[in-house]
User: What shape does this take?
Amino acid sequence: MSLIELANPSRFVALTNRALPWLAAATVLAFAVGISQAFLAPDDYQQGATVKIMFVHVPAAWLGIFGWVLMSAAALGTLVWRHPLADVAAKAAAPIGAAFTLMCLVTGSLWGRPMWGTYWVWDARLTSVLVLFLMYLGIVALWRTIDDPTQAARAAAVLTLVGAINIPIIKFSVDWWSTLHQPASVLRLGGPTIHPAILVPLIVMAVAFTLLFVTLHLAAMRNEIMRRRVRTLMMLQAGVRAGPS
Amino acid sequence: MTTALCALLVRDLRLAVRVGGGALIGVLFFLIVVTLVPFAMGPDLAVLARMGPAILWLGALLASLLALDRLLAIDHEDGSLDLILTARIPLELAVSAKALAHWLTTGLPLVIAAPLLGLLLNLDPKATGAVAVTLLAGTPALTFIGLIGAALTVAVRRGGLLLAILVLPLTVPVLIFGVAASNAAIVGPVPFGAPFSILCALTLVSLVIGPFAAAIALRQGLE
Assistant: This one.
């Protein structure tokens, strides 16, 4: 099923209706496995049990970044290939990515208090993730402010691509500046430096969170398509001819 | 094409000095912001001298931000933006000319006013010179990044606050390196050249990305 075959909204909604129960079930199953593995994982010799905040904090961070990457791909789909559902994908992804970024900031802050003695520090990675969160909120504000969905889609697409410069800055900030935040331990040249007893639950939780993102995203896309149909019907009822959108 | 761009530049320069309070209104706002800070922070001269570069940079950033309304929105309201869009000059160069005019009439006066305001903050000549040079290198970046936000919100009614929300996260690196360069020149073990080069690089990148992103946004938004 190539992307262009999914361009028909009705076919996309039908497919989503069939796929969502399975995705939701897979998400619940993955979380069940992940959370039980997280509870059974050993305590860190230095951090004790608080290391287990990592099982929520790190996947939330990965998905916050993944959300912006997804939005950038959708932005290219809108501007370059004019895929009909690209702007629906972008609009649906923005609040979800913002929520995951906020979760990353809050859980990181709660983890920082016992670890570093402070809830917040203005080092490179925390600052760049905070800026990512602000940009997410800006995108959501832009979507809500412009009335016409097609015009809003193009404006949001341009802003998403301009803001995509922040993603490599977040990833490499711990390498470029000496920061309080932990340097890269998983996705780095030379392989991960975490012991498998903690790495495996982390990966399982990451898979679970990703399934959650995909489930929420597809459901949000379906809702957005329905919302646009309602809008069109309301405009037709009001006697105004809706434009091609 | 050069005559058309020069004509656009001269038109924008003339409008900026004559309309909406003129070019010096940005400087007036800069002065007011710098005056407000000692009321908030207390008049301790040592503290003000230490925070001086940061206060001047924040004031310049906010003054640039508030002036962005005049970059594109006014032309959109009276229809001249549509004429520019349908003209035979490339839209990227046209918005570059407008942004250049905007910087000459808004950013450059801020740079010239900064040393005078440094006196209010008890900055010594070396610090003042450092701040002025970094502002000279950094205010074009603020204008050209603001150009992107202005193009995105050109057709949005009451879009002033949205413009600020969109532009400010993108200007954070300029602010960081501007203040870092100023402080490096004053105290700092870090040599002035390192953050200053990055600041100049940010400006050069924004000179390219700003007009292209703004042109795309204008074409998409005003079809």
